[in-house]
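Task: fold both queries, return tokens.
Query 1:
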Amino acid sequence: MLNVMEEKGYIERVSNKSDRRVVYVKLTKEGEEFLKDQNRKFENFTCQVIEKMGEEDTDNLIRLFGKLYDVIEELQSEK
């Protein structure tokens, strides 16, 4: 996955000068722009979905996601 992102110019790998085993992954300007664009697209799509669902269904979905989150938290705390 990182190789593909690097080929597209979204990231660059930077070696640690004091420890050559360590490689940092840095987001490039192109990567930042791509990420911003994807976030905008996701936000627009989410707004379209909410608009189609309507207020009542959206409220129910939010309530159910909240309940799901609570159940997951409860199950994880039992481990």
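Query 1 returned. Query 2:
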Amino acid sequence: MYDFVIIGGGIIGMSTAMQLIDVYPDARIALLEKESAPACHQTGHNSGVIHAGVYYTPGSLKAQFCLAGNRATKAFCDQ
């Protein structure tokens, strides 16, 4: 019996599992993946570039979200 079952071992499934472990350290978590390894579909086929938002109008909402996402991604990777 598991407390949480996550379907998919891509970036979203793995990130969800990490967040659940942080919030519920004693929870029993199962991550199900149909492939033989994680990140075999969309997650494994992206360019791996952290988008900097250089093409958006400075100060626009898109630019602000892009910069915030860039910082959050770097902080997540450092963690």
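Both queries returned. Flag for query 2: Residues 49-79 form one domain.
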